[in-house]
Structures are given as C-alpha cells and as structure tokens.
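Write out this protein's structure.
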Amino acid sequence: MVGAGPTGLLLAVELALAGVRTEVLDRLAEPDLTVKGASIRTASADLLDRRGLAPALRAAHNRTVREMRRAASGGTDEPGAGHPPAGPRIPVGGHFAAMPLRPELVDQEDSELRAHLATADAVLVPQRDLEAILGGHAAALGARVHRGVEVTGLHQDANGVTLDTSAGPRRARWVVGADGGRGVVRKLAGIGFPGADGELTGYQAIADLAGAAGLRRGWNWTPRGVYSYGPQPGRVITVQFGGPPADRDAPVTAQEVQSSLRHVSGTEVSLTALRGIATRWTDNARHATTYRRGRVLLAGDAAHVHSPFGGQGINLGLGDAANLGWKLAATIRGWAPGGLLDTYEAERRPVAAWVLDWTKAQVALMRGDEKTADLRRIVEGRLLGTRAAMTEFVFLTAGIGQRYAVDGSSPAGTVEAVASGEPGVPGARAGRLLGDVVLANGGRLADRAHWGTFVLLDRTPGRSYRQAAAPWADRVTSVTDTAGGLDGILVRPDGVVIWTADQGSVALTAAMGRWAGKPAGAVRP
C-alpha cells in the first residue's frame, strides 16, 4: 500500500489477517497532525467492531465526550454537562448543507437504525486517533509501515510491480494507491481523474478564541458563507464561495482563519493561537476512470475526492478497504472465484458516485444568493422538518444504506434507504451491511468476525447449514446458536449479508461458490 491514512492502514489489517505479507509506504516521516475528520460514521464503527476494535474506539469516543463536557460546563467537567440522554440512542450529529440533523425529529424506534446501535458510543473518534488505532492493529498483525518513503516511479509486468522510491526500489505482486486525491500512484499508473474544480475555500482549525460569544454553536449559514463552531472546544470550520484556494500547500495561519471566520460570521472574534495544524480545502469532485490498471488498484481519496460535507470521506475510504481487502487476499491466496476482484470496482464505484452527488448537492444549497436562501427555507422547513425525512437522512449519512446485488444481478451497488416491504429481518437483509446480532449466550456475532473470515450463523436444530458450508470451513467461521430469530445468516468478510435462511440451503451453497470459490474440502475441527 502507498499511503498510511485510514484507508491504507485498514487495508493492511485486512490483508495481514489473511496471511498476506503487507507493507505500507508513506511519504511523511511522522503521522499527519493536521486537523481533519472529527468522527466516523456508524457503518465504519460497525466495520471496525467486527475486527475487535470497538473497545479502542470507545476509549477515543469517551475522551472526545469528556472534552465536550468540559467545554459545555466551563471547564468543570460536570457529569451532566453535554451528556446525551440516558439509554441506547441513535447517534445524530452533523448536518446536511449546514442544516443541522436534529435528534428530536429522528425516529428512535426505527428498526433499521436500531439494528446498528451496538457502536453508538464509538463514533466520536478523531482521525488522528483512528489512525493510531489502525496502525497499532496492523503492526500487531505483522504489517510493516515505512514512513518517510516517497514513491517516484512505477513499473509493472505480468508478475508484479516495481516502485521507485526514495529508499530504493520496492517489488510487490500488487500495489494499492491509498495516497489521497493528489497522490502519485494513480498518476504513475496513467489513470484519469476527471471531474469539476472547486468553487469554494474552506478552513478547519482548533484554536484558542477571544470574543467568541457572538458565535453560534453548530453549523450556521449566512449570505457570506458557512461556519461551524464546536462541538469540540475551539473547533471552527469556515466556507467561503469565490473559488478554490490559490495555494493549498501554503501553511495556514491563524490570521487567515480569523479573517475568514470574521467575514462569514459577521463577528469580531479573534484567534489567539492555533492548536495543531489548520487545514485549507476545497470542494473539487473527481472520480478515477478505473479503480484498477493491471496489478495497481486505487482506494479511498486516490479513487474519488469530494467536499468533506457530511463526513463521508473517511467512511467511504474505509468501506473501500474492507471491500477490497478480502478480495485481493483471496486472489493472492489462490481461492478467489473468477471475476471476484472485478467486483471491487463494480460494487464500490456506484457508492462513491452517490457520495459525490450527495456532497455536490450540499454545496449547491450553501451558496449565498437569494434564490438559494429561498430553497434552503423550503428544504429545511418542509423536508428536513419532517420526522420521516430526518430519519432517512440520518440513515443515509450513517453509511448503512449501502446495498449490493450479491446474487450477481445488476446494478452491483447503490445507496438507498430500506424500502417499505423489503424482505428480510432488520439488520440482516441480503445485500445490506450486517447490523448487530445477539447470541443466546449473550455474545454477539460481530465478535466472531475478528479474523476476517466469512461468518455463518446456524440456528437449525440439526446444524444443517453448517454441514452445507463444511467444504469451505477453511474460509468460514460457523457459529451455532439457539436464540430465536432468523435461522441462518451468511456474511462476507466485509460485513455484507450474502444469504439468509429464508432463501434455503441450495442458495447457501450457491452463495458460497459465488463468493468463496471452489471448496477446499478441509473441515475445521
């Protein structure tokens, strides 16, 4: 992998779990300390939960919550300050086009949302903490991260790829570019990156502020732009239309952020110091013409870039890594069914295209002209002011609306809310990301997915489904259970449900053959 961000590190985890010798190269000598994402979405928290990382995510989440409480209580860290309501709650935060997602309008009894409550207390994870968690897990599994190594050339043949680097040549059977929207792997592989240039300049910083009483908490739209203040202490984001930054690479100064914040908010707030390295960004939207050229693949921002509105970037990249990891590992290990690796792009490209459209729509609704102001009033009052629409927007923003045609039909992938009358049990519908499944012994199905295998749940008295999947036992973790509910579920390593018991045993073996290849015949003791 080239790139030690969340996408590259999770991909290293997935490959290392499958026994593939993995190295990650990153041009930075130390982890990037610039201010980036402040949280992950539910789909990502679920994904990392299935790899046993929920305790680490919760620890990071709790640190963030404590900071928010201290800020809300004036530094006294009162137990009740900024505390979410008691009981299991669907996490609601963020915005759509600077229109806040409102918890009081979300249907907290929605069956699909409640099927993903297990990681509700593990989403307020800053990107810096996420990278530390993933990097530590990758290292523990044997993956090696080499920092301060810059890639300058790429040459591939039928057997592998040679990278020219600042530390000498590196040879690998496969190379994945996870080095961001301005990374070199895509360019060196000759893959196009068409799209639209940005029309705005945004800043994000954590700063010491003076005269901030006039700033409104949360996301705010004005005719001059958009700004956000909080929820973490001193966190500010500004958006101004008028074109992309002239120089995205120049260091961001406190004066520059202060000027933007004053202009957009109309206040005389002062930034007395920056805490960490502020970022400057724009909303250019681009999508790679292909995710693969020979033995070179792309994932994360190297394959698609968009504005950060809605916090979709990290989650889209993690979804790429989870989808690609086991498929590439199967190809390397020799058991992949024909065309398996091609399903990576077939499934993930439509999801990325949806995210690009989702973020571009938000940009259109943020412009400062009078017509946009009229449209915002209609959208916020008539659409997002309803319980049904707010619940659906939270569902889609959470990342759990991904849907795949796991039976081989077309289209391969899309993003949509669960339709009324859609067959299946909430949280365990074929083609959807698995929700939480509690076992009779109090354990969870997610805890049986830590090693990146397929997972089969069998609740039949005679264990007939486990017997049907026995020829693939080297690739499947079978879990027998006596709890009520659906009799059987088969889940891919990336958490996608590919079979449920209502489809029958014949469909189970068909799903195994389609996704796990020819059986090896070995039966796990």
